[in-house]
Amino acid sequence: MNRRVLTILVVAFAIALACTFLVIRLMQNQTKAVKPPATTLVVAAKTNIKLGAILTADNLTTIEITGTTPKGAILAKDKNNAVGRGVLSDIYEGEPIIENRLTAIGSGGGLAATIPQGMRACAVKVDDVVNVSGFVTPGMRVDVLISGTPPGQQNPTQGTVSRTLLQNIQVLSAGTDFQKDAEGKAKAVQVVNLLVTPEQAETLSLASNQTKIQLVLRNPLDTKVAVVPGTTTSNLFSGPIGARSKSPHAKKSAPRFITVVVLNGSKQTEEKFASPGGQQ
After folding, report:
1. Shortest CA distance to 62 belongs to which of 46, 83, 73, 50?
2. Are the CB atoms for 195 and 170 separated by under 8 Å?
3. Three-class SS of residue 40?
4. Is 134 among the domain residues?
């Protein structure tokens, strides 16, 4: 083989080997630069946990979270800090346990632990329709309506009076008491517990004994307090039966006429007269 060709082949092989080495080193450096995402082991719910329940080791597990840990999440090493604490809102299977979803350590569980400072839980009786159909559930917002006969009413012909007593009230529980029966099951009761101030609790207590109470569901995003004057039974029958409210934009029908043609020789004239029966 020609010496010159052999030299060229050796040099080319050396260059290829050097390039391969550089590529391998570059790939290794890039692999080292990319670190795997950090993971954190946190405490999570093993099963669905209802509001008011007390956490035990049996309904807790641990899960691995990649990336940013949720604020307030209880770490796996602090699992014992969650055991024995009450639940302030429903927690679903696989959901991390957050500090602000639990009561303070040592406060236990049940409905009492879910009441914020300065507030009260007031029980309101409801009928079977509201209770069975799930009309109100924990976390919803309602208005409280009352109906009855005011004491010392000057005009007895007005009958029953209805008015809005409270607005935008949060529901704490509905249909099921947190007390357990002899078999350890939740006991269903015909009441709804509302979160109110002490002044509102006094008002509700008086209304429960003197009037009939009805709860009206509202959109939780609608926090506006409406100004409503109330109504009486006489107002329900004040208008004529079958009367229809007229729209302010409704067009008035044009008056109808009767056209009479008068022939006087070769002359023809027309006279219009209003139609008493509405026929033209």
Report:
1. 46
2. yes
3. strand
4. yes
Token pair for residue 108? Answer: 């236990």
Tens-place pLDDT, residues 185-211: 655 557 888 999 999 999 998 888 888
- The dihedral built from the CA positions of residue 232, 235, 241 and 243, taken in this order, carries a sign that is negative
What 8-state DSSP symbol labels residue 214? E
Beta carbons within 8 Å of 231's beta carbon, 6+ residues apart: 161, 162, 163
Tokens 């400072």 label which residue?
Answer: 117
CB 73 within 8 A of CB 114: no
Q: Tokens representing 8?
A: 């060229």
What's the token pair of residue 42?
Answer: 């946190």
Q: Is the domain of 53 the same as that of 142? A: no
pLDDT mean over 131-157: 75
How many residues would you count in the chain?
280
Say how many domains are in the chain: 3
Q: Where in the sequence is the domain holding 73, given as residue range(s)?
A: 39-101
